[in-house]
């Protein structure tokens, strides 16, 4: 990783990244899929996150007839007596969340801290999706799983304490899945999605944008990693032009149907410019967009809220942006 990238980071973020590097963190593309999965679990499954009223793991029937594991996060009740009015609880938003990991890595545990933060800060029921991973299950398997979970949430979230507006969200590749679910729902007359929350999303295979030239050596994600993840996910180069694999490729008519968006980007991130470009394209067709840009944070900053005050403030901005779209 280039030293200039570390120098560009917020000091606390740089400290955390240096700690990762001191543990010998290799680039993802240099590992086997199995080794990368083990390492990702070790690095990102240890956070505690805020306490919530309840969490629950269960499975529904997946798009291939198999089981699709889900984890529900219900936030703690608010108010002086620890209670909310029944009407407020019944109108609680439901956020269907897809984890990052280049469609190749990631588990319910690796996204646990982010889901807890989203639930605690928004008051929403968060439903995390353990979609099938590539390369064993290439595109559109992950999208099909995320979409199936969204359909299920639309029909059943009230039984878990949701029942209000439906939101899709995700980090990195999961942000791309959330964007694709929102587009697919619009054209298939699917669930009515009130908003999408795209956190440093992975939206296009094109690595010629300036952010790749500036930050393609990392930290935490490199150009070579991005190329490796796309190679695991896509069945063939043709899929790279499919807007449900690469939402930045969606045409104007499809984008016009997208729900309001919160798009968060990091300045020191090779994915920065595709997130900005997607926000620009949505805004150009009059889709309401809230942009949260953190110029001195890196890819994955939502996993650093406990250790990096700037990441903590960014998460607040993201949640405030969502609340504004749901008001």
Q: What can be said about this structure in brief?
A:
39% of the residues lie in helices and 19% in strands. The chain is α/β, with parallel strands linked by helices and 327 residues long.
Describe the structure.
By secondary structure, this protein is α/β, with parallel strands linked by helices. 39% of the residues lie in helices and 19% in strands. It is built from twelve helices and eight strands. The chain has helices spanning 3-7, 11-22, 33-44, 86-90, 112-122, 141-156, 173-187, 210-215, 223-233, 252-256, 272-284, 309-326; strands at 54-61, 67-74, 92-98, 125-129, 163-171, 193-199, 261-268, 289-298. The protein has an eight-stranded mixed β-sheet, with helices on both faces. β7 (261-268), α11 and β8 (289-298) form a beta-alpha-beta unit. α5 (112-122) crosses α12 and α6 (141-156) packs across α7. It is globular. The termini are far apart. 51% of the residues are buried. The model is unreliable at 79-83 (pLDDT under 50).
Query: Uncertain runs with pLDDT below 50, 5 residues or more?
Result: 79-83
Number of strands: 8
Question: Mean of residue pLDDT?
Answer: 93
| Mass-distribution shape | globular
What separation lies between the terminal Cα atoms?
Answer: 42 Å
Residue share in β-strands: 15-25%
